[in-house]
Design goal:
- Chain A: GO terms for molecular function: 2 iron, 2 sulfur cluster binding; metal ion binding; NADH dehydrogenase activity.
- The complex is a heterodimer of chains A (289) and B (448).
- Chain A contains eleven helices and five strands, in the order H-H-H-H-H-E-H-E-E-E-E-H-H-H-H-H.
- Chain A is of the alpha+beta class and 289 residues long.
- Chain A folds into two domains: 68 residues, Arc Repressor Mutant, subunit A, CATH 1.10.10; 156 residues, Glutaredoxin, CATH 3.40.30.10.
- Chain A has a five-stranded mixed sheet.
- Chain A starts with a helix and ends with a helix.
- Chain B is α/β, with parallel strands linked by helices and 448 residues long.
- Chain B folds into three domains: 226 residues, Rossmann fold (3-Layer(aba) Sandwich); 83 residues, Ubiquitin-like (UB roll) (Roll), CATH 3.10.20; 94 residues, de novo design (two linked rop proteins) (Up-down Bundle).
- Helix content of chain B is 44%, strand content 11%.
- In chain B, helix 16 runs antiparallel to helix 17 and helix 17 packs antiparallel against helix 18.
- Classes of the chains: A alpha+beta (289), B alpha/beta (448).
- The interface between A and B is large, with 97 and 112 residues.
Chain lengths: 289, 448
């Protein structure tokens, strides 16, 4: 389902015929949801962003029929809805895969390896930025900073966190997704499809058992300062649980990392500044000499 | 903290002050039960017993300043809301955390969402609001799940809804997921977005305190600012003021990232230094040295290893020529090409420019063209002046702070690393190997 260039081009020719309407049953179902969304706001137009997430949960992207639905529900013109739908990067404007794989290539992640991850995935999947694999499973893109810099480099799949990735670990994740195996993010619940994710974004809570608890209380980096303050030995620098590990997806939602899991056979023992006087770590090295 | 001996003390127990993060290591820390076991909703009881005006004065006296970047006093923002005007008042929490390097609100909401909800109820009592919104960036679904659940729990327990804890306060809380746009972190763009429009900043005045959401008086506060309020009420403003400095009191989350031995969240009194944080956490990754860092995200002018002892509070960082911002301490070591780093940030600003004003829309575009050429070794010496000139034509002349943010990495990198730019020009290319900067670079090296 690789998108053809014509689908991506900007149409400047003949005006398009009016957008098609949803079939009656779809419309009735979505109208009930839409009423619930609109009721959350003092002014109905505020419901537009969630409603665009809602129509995306129906078709996997924001279609002309979806925009027409939003316009009719909110008493707006389709032009007004289109203006909003085209502003925000989370709304897909053409069909995509069940899993939106976004590699952070903002400066910090890029430097820490995000560029290498993105390159590796493009080669592995045979798609470029914004393109979808032949089997319709994965849409690959690069994304901006996703507020997880202490877990760099980060990959987001359907907006769930895959922290501290390596080219090997993330290739394994996408292979698992394409093979239909269950995949659990580093922090969060087992992945659901892009459409199901869009429904959560529209404001409908995830009803799956254990979904809220998925990922435990906090990731290891989030606890770095707390553990130091409590005088607890801090965990070793976390690398991906998948790195050098088995191909099966991790079973437990809560991952309690141990050094044995973290260090693959190709990993050298990690040195600390204390054990390596020739290379004292930290900015104080020269001042201290 | 007056004695030199104390300043040199790098014992984490003395330098850190986990408050918001104090129980993130507990099982199910995000639940109401665990929150209540850690003094949760105690601050609210005290707040509800107070007159709203006294409550505003109390928060103002605590000296709490906005944690979203600008550092505006939180209590003063509340005080600006006109009272008795007959219009609805709104509280909007800015949870659009998207500033490159910033990663504090997302882990906070993941591990401890009730701290925010308690803070919201307190703030709404103060500003006399009966409807609050959390504008959460859409790209963080696990956090959205926990917010949905925390709000459900809070309604069920009577902390939200009608007649909260018998106080007569009615409050509804709506969790609203955004759809991907950095500019929506700008408070007026956020309000437009929350009204169902393209997220573009508004001209001020009128300020949101007078005409905000739906043209009604509105307070827009950052997540961490609001989440800090319950502990101030519960433990007292004097306790809060016992940390930090006179003008920058209290505790805050510092986010250490990049080429450091132990990236993560470090909650400490304001005024801690990067040297102290690095000393206690194992420093830079073994065998490497700090080259440049940002004190508060990519929009705050970068620092170098000369600035390790700058107190990380609003005044200290300001006096050293940058801004405390979001306390996003992105640290890069000597393997990192500063031209590459700035090019990528510049591409970010160009991508995220909303297009409303010309200096930012056009300026960021041309900055990207110049930076890409420079990084690829195709630049000329005169391009450096042109780069500075374009940045100067954006800085202070754009509609909102996004433009200033775009100029900051350019100015500061030219100030500290002009030679490195020149090397790219004279050497016709980048002298750095990006493979050496990756998180796994040294592992591979040893193996090879």
């Amino acid at each position: 389902m690789t998108t053809s260039p014509s689908e991506r081009g900007v149409s400047l020719g003949m005006p398009q015929p009016p957008a098609p309407a949803y079939p009656d049953d779809v419309r009735a179902r979505l109208e009930a949801d839409a009423r619930e969304v609109v009721a959350r706001y003092p002014d109905s137009r505020s419901a537009l962003l969630p409603l665009l997430h809602l129509v995306q949960s129906e078709e996997g992207h924001v279609t002309r029929a979806g925009m027409r639905f939003c316009a009719e529900v909110l008493g707006l013109t389709t032009a007004e809805v289109t203006a909003v739908a085209t502003f925000y990067s989370m709304y897909r404007r053409r069909a995509g895969g069940d899993y939106q794989v976004g590699v952070c290539t903002n400066t910090l992640c890029a430097v820490m390896g995000g560029d290498a991850l993105f390159e590796s995935l493009q080669e592995h999947l045979g798609v470029g930025n914004g393109e979808t694999t032949e089997d319709g499973t994965i849409t690959l893109e690069h994304i901006e900073c996703n507020a997880a810099c202490d877990y760099a480099p980060v990959v987001m799949i359907n907006w769930e966190f895959f922290d501290n990735q390596t080219p090997e670990s993330i290739r394994r994740v996408v292979d698992d997704l394409r093979a239909g195996r269950e995949v659990t993010p580093t922090r969060g619940a087992p992945l659901c499809t892009f459409k199901e994710t869009s429904r959560i974004l529209a404001g409908f809570p995830d009803e799956r058992d254990g979904a809220v608890a998925g990922g435990g209380s906090a990731g290891p980096a989030s606890l770095a300062g707390l553990k130091l303050a409590k005088g607890e030995a801090p965990a070793a620098r976390v690398v991906s649980p998948r790195d050098g590990g088995p191909a099966e997806p991790p079973k437990g939602a809560v991952h309690d990392p141990s050094p044995a899991e973290h260090l693959g056979s190709h990993d050298a023992p990690q040195e600390t500044s204390a054990s390596d006087p020739a290379h004292p770590a930290g900015p104080t090295a020269e001042e201290g000499e | 903290m007056t004695l030199a001996a104390e300043i040199k003390d790098t014992s984490p127990e003395k330098l850190l002050a986990p408050v918001l993060s104090a129980f993130w290591d507990q099982d199910e820390s995000w639940t109401l039960d665990v929150y209540r076991r850690h003094e949760g909703y105690e601050g609210l009881r005290k707040a509800l017993a107070m007159d709203p005006d006294d409550l505003i004065a109390y928060v103002k006296d605590s000296g709490l300043r906005g944690r979203g970047g600008a550092g505006f006093p939180t209590g003063m923002k509340w005080q600006f809301i006109p009272q008795g005007d007959g219009k609805p008042h709104y509280l909007v929490v800015n949870a659009d955390e998207s500033e490159p390097g910033t990663c504090k609100d997302i882990p906070l909401l993941f591990a401890n969402p009730h701290a925010l909800i308690e803070g919201i109820v307190i703030a709404c009592h103060a500003i006399r609001s009966s409807h609050a919104f959390v504008y959460l960036r859409g790209e963080v679904v696990p956090v959205l799940r926990r917010l949905h659940e925390a709000v459900r729990e809070a309604y069920a327990a009577g902390y939200l809804g009608e007649d909260i804890l018998g106080s007569g306060l009615d409050l509804d809380l709506t969790v609203h997921a955004g759809a991907g746009a950095y500019i929506c972190g700008e408070e007026t763009a956020l309000l437009d977005s929350l009204e169902g429009r393209r997220g573009q900043p508004r001209l001020r005045p009128p300020f949101p305190a007078v005409a905000g959401l739906y043209a009604c008086p509105t307070v827009v506060n950052n997540v961490e600012s609001i989440a800090s309020v319950p502990s101030i009420l519960h433990r007292g403003k004097d306790w809060f003021r016992s940390m930090g400095s006179e003008k920058s009191p209290g505790f805050t989350l510092y986010s250490l990232s990049g080429h450091v031995a132990r990236p993560g969240q470090y909650e400490a009194p304001l005024g801690v230094t990067l040297r102290q944080l690095l000393d206690m956490s194992g420093g830079m990754r073994p065998g490497h040295r700090l080259k440049f860092w940002t004190p508060g995200g990519s929009s705050t002018p970068m620092f170098t290893d000369e600035h390790l002892d700058v107190p990380l509070d609003y005044e200290g960082v300001g006096a050293a020529g940058s801004m405390l911002g979001t306390k996003a301490l992105q640290c890069f070591d000597e393997t990192t090409c500063v031209v590459r780093a700035v090019t990528r940030w510049t591409e970010f600003y160009a991508h995220e420019s909303c297009g409303k004003c010309t200096p930012c829309r056009e300026g960021t575009y041309w900055l990207v063209q110049l930076m890409r050429d420079l990084e690829a070794g195709k630049g000329r010496m005169s391009d450096l002046d042109k780069l500075y000139d374009i940045a100067d034509n954006i800085n202070g002349k754009a509609f909102c702070a996004l433009g200033d943010g775009a100029a900051a990495p350019i100015f500061s990198s030219l100030k500290y690393f002009r030679e490195e730019y020149e090397q790219h020009i004279t050497g016709r290319g980048c002298p750095f190997d990006p493979a050496r900067s990756t998180a796994w670079a040294d592992r591979t090296e040893v193996h090879a």
